[in-house]
Amino acid sequence: MRAHLWRALGGTAGEEEGDAVGSDGSSRGGSLVHQGLLYATQKEFLAGTLPFIQRGLELGDLIWVKSTVRNANCLRAALGADARRVVFGDCSQWYRHPVRALAALNRAAREGAGRQRLRMIGEPWYTASPGPQRTEQARHESLLNVALASADACVLCTYDTRMVDDEVVAQVGRTHPELVVDGGARSSPDYIDPVLFTAECDSAPLPEPPSSALQLAFDHLGQLATLRAFMTSYATWAGAAAQSVTQFVQAVDEVATNAIEHGGGSGVIRIWTGPRTMSCEISDTGSGLTDPLAGHLPLPPGRAGGCGLWLARQFCDLVEVRSGSDGTTVRLHLSLE
């Protein structure tokens, strides 16, 4: 499979390095290097990741590994004493909430700017069944190219082809500008602009809310205090944890405020619960979002306004948005587990 991919990228037998950047992510300082690595054995995993880490150790980079326990143990054994200079973490926790992961990556890159390069190996967590959660995982990989475009960072995302399905494998080339194949890195022929990828993610209509959903209309900011109190009571009744309730209510308030101030002056809220999830949908009749990446990217330092949708994405377990000339619908989900 590796040889096949390498030939598809235009490589020839014996080639080990691509035309743009080395597989160790070292040839392009001051801007993001984002690569994807498909592997089917532990030997292939180590061959693709060890040079990446070793180069980072030589340069004094901040090195993170967010991978499986098995992969982390293999890297520790191969690195020996140098493993102490690497920060290891569980990929199932890191990738559980893609928006928070993106925020943490952006924060780390910003804090080290001009002093220390961020170098990370990740194992994107695709164990969830196909659906909105998987869509957000893939979107995270695409948005990373925008959020960290000017950051001094190298991110190598690894995918075990024994564990992920063909859909995930196909998305790797579409969301990573470069692929590491047979020890070398080349531009991905399938990579697409994150704006287009995000549009694809949001192209399908949202399922209709259940007929049992509660529905409330609002048309001025003075009503939002009552709305917040109601949402607090409802989420508590539904069984959400106290901290989750506070954050979820703030997210609803941010989106409802946007509907009044930017979405035509009024909105409709629908609320319902499923077996393990509470959902809240806010719809307005404004002219739609003008920025296709609105609320998807970390805010610049010092930015005080325009952060409602970004905050909502961090405070909820899942946020889905559909927007057009006839209005915007934002659907917020909170896990009750």
How would you describe this structure to a colleague?
By secondary structure, this protein is an alpha/beta fold. The protein folds into two domains: 200 residues, Rossmann fold (3-Layer(aba) Sandwich); 122 residues, Histidine kinase-like ATPase, C-terminal domain (Heat Shock Protein 90). Helices cover 39% and strands 22% of the residues. It contains eleven helices and twelve strands. The strands form two sheets. Strands 3-2-4-5-1-6-7 form a seven-stranded mixed sheet, sandwiched between helices. Strands 8-9-10-12-11 form a five-stranded antiparallel sheet. α2 crosses α3 and α6 runs antiparallel to α8. The longest helix is centred in the C-terminal third of the chain and has 21 residues. It is elongated, with a radius of gyration of 22 Å.
Describe the structure in brief:
The chain has 337 residues and is α/β, with parallel strands linked by helices. The chain folds into two domains: 2-201, P-loop containing nucleotide triphosphate hydrolases (Rossmann fold), CATH 3.40.50; 214-335, Heat Shock Protein 90, CATH 3.30.565.
